[in-house]
Design goal:
- There is one protein chain.
- By secondary structure, this protein is mostly beta strands.
- Helix content is about 5%, strand content about 40%.
- It is built from two helices and 25 strands.
- Strands 9-10-11-12-13-14-15 form a seven-stranded antiparallel beta sheet, with no helix packed on it. Strands 3, 4, 5, 6, 7 and 8 form a six-stranded antiparallel beta sheet that branches.
Length: about 325
C-alpha cells in the first residue's frame, strides 16, 4: 500500500520517506517517466488540479481512470464502489478518500453539500422551493416544501404542515380518504392494551360522529372490535339479547338505544362477569330493561367489570 506519511513508490519498491512529502513529488514518484509537469498535470490515467503553481502546492481535485495500483491502494479505489473517477475538495492527493466530493465508478456520489435548483433525483422533481414526484394537484405524488409535506394519491392523501382543509379551516395535518372506509387507523399494542391511541391534553373534538348500527330482535355476541359503538335496537317483534365481549379492550364503550317500549333488551357479561348498574349496589352478570330507554355501558379494567347507566325513560 502506498502511504505518503511513511512510504514512497520508487522503481517498484516501497521505501521510507519524510512526512512532509509534497503532492508534486508524490506524483513524480508514481509516474516516474517525466509525465508530470509542475504547472499543469496531464496524465494518461490521472488529471490532477493543484491549488497553486509551486512545487509544494496540494492536489485538491482531479479525474482518474484507474489501472495504477499505487493510487488504487492509496484511496483511489473503494472496495464497494470501485474506482474514484472524480474528486474535489481534497486536502492532498494522499487524502482523496476523504475529499468533500467524490464520484465512483458505479455512479455513487458523496458530497458534503448539495444545492439544486432544478432537475430530478430517482424520479423526484426538484422545483423552486419543493421536491416531489408531482405537484400538489397531481394524481400520485410525494411533495416536500418548507411549509408542507404531502403524500398519497388524488383521492387518498395525508398532509402535514401549514394547510387549509376545504378552504375553510387552517390545520396542522389533514388526512383525506375519498374511497376507502377508514381515514386513519391507529394501533397501540403495549402488551396490556392500556395506552392511549390519541392523547388530547387540551382542545375539543369538532364534528365527533361515532358510527352506529341497527339491530332487530335476536341474539348477538359482541367481539370488541366492532367499527360501530352506537346501537339502535328494534324490539317491536321480540326481545334482543347481547353478549358482551369476553376479552374487552380497556374502556370499551357502547351506547344502546331501545326504540320501542315493548319486549326487552338483555345484556349478558360472558364468563359470569360483573355488570354494575344504576340503582343497585351489587353487580350482576345479566341486566335487562323495557321501555324506550338508552343505556351506556363501559368496561373498567381497574374494576374488571362493566359499568352501566340509564337515560330517562320516554
Amino acid at each position: 500500500m502506498l502511504n505518503a506519511v511513511s512510504q514512497k513508490y520508487t522503481d517498484g519498491k516501497v521505501a521510507d520517506i519524510e512526512t512532509s512529502m509534497k503532492d508534486y513529488d508524490y506524483l513524480k514518484l508514481v509516474f516516474p517517466n517525466n509525465t508530470v509537469d509542475n504547472n499543469g498535470v496531464v496524465l494518461s490515467q490521472l488529471m490532477a488540479v493543484k491549488n497553486g503553481t509551486s512545487a509544494s502546492a496540494a492536489v485538491v481535485a482531479g479525474l482518474y481512470g484507474g489501472g495504477v495500483d499505487s493510487l488504487n491502494n492509496a484511496g483511489f479505489k473503494d472496495t464497494t464502489h470501485g474506482i474514484l473517477m472524480m474528486f474535489a475538495g481534497a486536502t492532498s492527493i494522499q487524502n482523496v478518500a476523504a475529499a468533500k466530493t467524490r464520484i465512483y465508478g458505479d455512479g455513487t456520489l458523496y458530497t458534503s453539500k448539495l444545492v439544486a435548483q432544478a432537475g430530478t433525483i430517482a424520479g423526484f422533481t426538484i422545483g423552486t422551493g419543493y421536491i416531489g414526484s408531482e405537484n400538489l394537484t397531481g394524481s400520485e405524488y410525494f411533495y416536500l416544501s418548507s411549509s408542507v409535506i404531502k403524500n398519497g394519491k388524488k383521492d387518498t392523501y395525508a398532509m402535514i404542515g401549514d394547510t387549509m382543509y376545504r378552504e375553510k379551516w387552517k390545520v396542522a395535518a389533514t388526512l383525506y380518504n375519498h374511497y376507502g372506509s377508514t381515514g386513519i387507523g391507529l394501533v397501540v399494542d403495549m402488551g396490556d392494551n392500556s395506552h392511549a391511541a390519541i392523547y388530547v391534553p387540551n382542545g375539543t373534538f369538532s364534528g365527533f360522529r361515532p358510527m352506529s348500527r341497527s339491530y332487530d330482535n335476536g341474539t348477538y355476541t359482541l367481539k370488541g372490535n366492532e367499527e360501530e359503538t352506537v346501537f339502535f335496537v328494534n324490539t317491536s317483534k321480540g326481545s334482543t339479547t347481547f353478549y358482551l365481549p369476553s376479552n374487552p379492550q380497556p374502556d370499551q364503550r357502547y351506547e344502546i338505544r331501545k326504540l320501542h317500549s315493548g319486549n326487552s333488551i338483555i345484556i349478558n357479561a360472558q364468563n359470569n362477569g360483573d355488570i354494575y348498574v344504576t340503582g343497585s349496589n351489587n353487580p350482576s352478570s345479566q341486566i335487562s330493561w323495557t321501555g324506550r330507554r338508552c343505556v351506556t355501558i363501559q368496561y373498567s379494567k381497574n374494576l374488571d367489570a362493566w359499568v352501566m347507566w340509564f337515560s330517562y325513560e320516554a
